[in-house]
Amino acid sequence: MLTPIEQSCLRHRRHQLGQQFEGQALLWSGVAPFRNFAANHFPFRASSHFLYFAGLPLHNAVIGLEGGQLTLFWDEPHPDAALWHGPSLSRGEMADQIGAETYLPLSAVPTWAQQAATLPALSADTRQQQIEGLGRPVPAITSQGSQDEGGNRDRHLAAAVIQLRLQQDGFALDQLQQAADITVAAHLQGMRSTLNHASEAAIRAEIEAVMMAHQCPTAYASIVTVQGEILHNDAYPHALAPGDLLLVDAGAETPLGWAADVTRTWPVSGHFSSTQRDVYDIVLAAHDACIAAIRPGVEFRDLHLLAAQTIASGLVDIGILKGQPEVLVERDAHALFFPHGIGHLLGLDVHDMEDLGDLAGYGAGRQRCDRMGLRYLRLDRPLRPQMLVTIEPGFYQIPALLNHPDLRQQYRDCVNWDRLAHFEDVRGIRIEDDVLVTAEGCQVLTSALPTQGAEVEACVQGSTS
Known about the structure:
The protein has 17 helices and 12 strands. The protein has a 4-stranded mixed β-sheet, with helices on both faces. A 3-stranded antiparallel β-sheet has the order 5-6-7. A 3-stranded antiparallel β-sheet has the order 8-11-12, with helices on one face. α10 packs antiparallel against α11. The chain is globular, with a radius of gyration of 24 Å.
């Protein structure tokens, strides 16, 4: 249940929304999908926008927001449900928990606010609930707006919600630090148990067991793989072999929905090879340079270009790339090995508010670039105090890029392919931390997890000394 401080913070969020958005808004929590038969549900995850203003992950609930006031629409479980799931709070008790001034049954939604704005749901079931409640479809939010009156109201609501959620308040930061601490502990367990296991799946089990012990689900499908060149690899069939690097991208989500997102890469034997260490140190240099540059007002795009420049320079130093680093970045040659963006927003969603598209990630008037080195940039805004972002540079040998005939031709003068062949034991390396922008710089919420190569080796070997 929520503490008085948390309840006060929720009231403040709703008051801020009332100042930025005139009119009524309805937000749906969603329903749990089921498999096989109706009583066998998948785990329920409430809508993040609902959670931001209601605080608790209520199943099949709607909240109405107007002028800072909250109305809860929720039906109490059928009395027979107590047999299977135990007692439940009444509607009034639940309203008291989240600080709702009014509480009504779900059937009252259509008559409460026919002209209310909302945010589009992701699931088909919840989208149908929105149509029934509002009497209209809810289109996706776009940066161009809509000719439809309801769509324009929705877009104005989205813009107001984005402005609030871009900067984390005290309630959020407490939750995010909890998620970060549990995630750090999980990664450390994964490192320290590696020598005792022979498969990706076994290391995944060690990592996720720590999260489960804290009643935290994973914030996303964990990546635990020796195939680090597959950026979002969520399969775990491989054995661990001497010489392998294990790339682990895993984050906990608190019971109230707040996420962490952390990546480390370590040698399964406890020792990097010389080629692995050379590349690891380049990725780490990019990671450290970006974090050192974070402060309010800095453009996130500039952090990405700083990482690209650092990686290009390092690859020139070890003979993989040829030329001036600045020119290589201008030509996007670095993106052969570092194709994704430097990071993204983090909060209630692991990629925070990306359900709202680039309206959340990109500043006013900005659009995605089609350049190879910039097109996957998820965030293009100046940094503000209390924004939480990930910093996650990487190096990958992705066959689809390196073997593409057009790219081989385009970058024939930039890549020393013979030299690259000496680094075949480096399939993928990524180092990722969760970084809070502060008034004067930044704070790394996940700093307790080592990044230095020697410290990572020591963790895998079972020693932190």
